[in-house]
Specification:
By secondary structure, the protein is of the alpha/beta class. It has 12 helices and 8 strands. The chain has an 8-stranded mixed sheet with strand order 1-2-3-4-5-6-7-8. The radius of gyration is 20 Å and the shape is globular. The structure holds iron/sulfur cluster and zinc ion (ZN). The site of zinc ion has 6 residues, from loops. Residues 10-38 have a biased composition (Basic and acidic residues). Residues 1-38 are annotated as: Disordered.
Length: 358
């Protein structure tokens, strides 16, 4: 890829143009949401540096991401799910937490060792989650083993992260880095920060006694399948080399509503990644000194990562198996005729002619 020239950041071009398109697309959404209900909550199993835990994943409904209000990332539809008006009161956020605890009690006999909290933005941003609420949530879960809280790098500091460490929890900060390549993060994802900011946030988390989990995005718009695979392999390696970053969650892009990705998808300009591409990255980075997991959301559907339709469930199962065991041989046991199509796409698709096959 060529280096960006200064004019791509001029008004009406580059990031400014991306933001203006995204604001326009998002403004078409007129749904509203209840501030006392979380966006989503579910139970699962997760691989951590201490082994596999039952996990309770919570997506809190907060005022929404600041960056999304400016326009935001090309693939992110989360802001379409947040509360209108921009902020949610302490009592309402705590009611959402209670709703999640009830969900856990109704669906499992055991309490989850791992709690993962995401928002439609940054949990550590005090405009979304006030310090008082953050501390009350840390207290609520103080009897668990581990917690993951999501944040953009800007809000990671010793004080915010320290609340969870002080409650006796093994704490990880999940950062939506998306890619280690600044050019791809800026121009394809439309996310504003640099890899150096991620490194700084990792240092701050470590100073507070916490670890870091990097979230990567496979195949943002405008990248060919081969470029997307290479971008992920490089990114996993660079993240693995950052002190304190012990886990990478590498997730394929899916087509969310009210996003630029959706516009491109409808106009024939975007196809979510192949599951073979996910398998390829996991297999070839398995020797890195970092846990790499992936959770292909919407796998097998046209709007989610998919292969031919015949083998999607099989490959998805191998990926989930890899997540828990980190053993690349799981991929030797899956094959399908569509691998030949995928090979051809990897070899022939170019950024200006994609997608080559659907
Ligand atoms: S991906 Fe994160 S930073 Fe980007 S718009 Fe969505 S919530 Fe905001
Ligand atoms: Zn297939």
């Amino acid at each position: 890829m060529s280096k960006p020239s200064p004019e791509v950041y001029e008004e009406g071009k580059g990031m400014d143009a991306h933001n203006s398109v995204m604001r326009d697309i998002r403004s078409r959404n007129d749904s509203t949401y209840d501030p006392r209900e979380p966006t989503r909550v579910w139970l699962d199993e997760d691989n951590t540096p201490d082994g596999v835990y039952q996990s309770l994943t919570i997506i809190l409904n907060t005022g929404g991401c600041r960056w999304a209000r400016a326009g935001g990332c090309t693939m992110c539809g989360y802001v379409a799910e947040s509360v209108e008006g921009g902020s949610v009161a302490h009592e309402d956020l705590m009611a959402q937490i209670q709703h999640c605890l009830d969900h856990e009690a109704e669906n499992s006999d055991e309490t989850s060792g791992l709690i993962k909290i995401y928002t439609s933005g940054s949990f550590l941003d005090e405009r979304e989650v006030p310090a008082e609420t953050r501390r009350a949530i840390a207290e609520t879960f103080a009897d668990r083993e581990r917690i993951v809280v999501e944040s953009l790098p800007d809000f990671v500091d010793e004080e915010t992260v320290g609340d969870f460490v002080d409650a006796g929890l093994e704490t990880d900060v999940a950062v939506g880095l998306e890619t280690a390549t600044d050019r791809v993060r800026h121009d394809c994802v439309n996310k504003y920060f640099d890899f150096a900011d991620f490194e700084e946030a990792s240092e701050a988390a470590q100073a507070a006694g916490a670890g870091v989990k990097a979230y990567l995005l496979m195949k943002p718009p405008f990248l060919s399948e081969a470029e997307a695979v290479e971008d992920m392999k490089r990114s996993v390696r660079r993240c693995g080399a950052v002190d304190g970053c012990h886990t990478v969650s590498m997730n394929p892009c899916n087509v969310q509503r009210y996003t630029m990705v959706e516009e491109l998808y409808h106009d024939g300009g975007y196809r979510p990644p192949w599951l073979w591409s996910v398998a390829d990255v996991l297999e070839s980075t398995a020797d890195e000194d970092v846990i790499v997991v992936s959770d292909p959301v919407g796998h097998g559907s046209d709007r989610g990562p998919h292969n031919c339709g015949e083998c999607d469930d099989k490959v998805q199962r191998a990926i989930k198996d890899f997540d828990l065991r980190q053993d690349p041989s799981v991929f030797e046991q899956v094959s399908c005729e569509c691998e030949a199509t995928w090979d051809a796409v990897i070899e022939r698709e170019r950024g200006y002619s994609l997608p080559l096959a659907r």
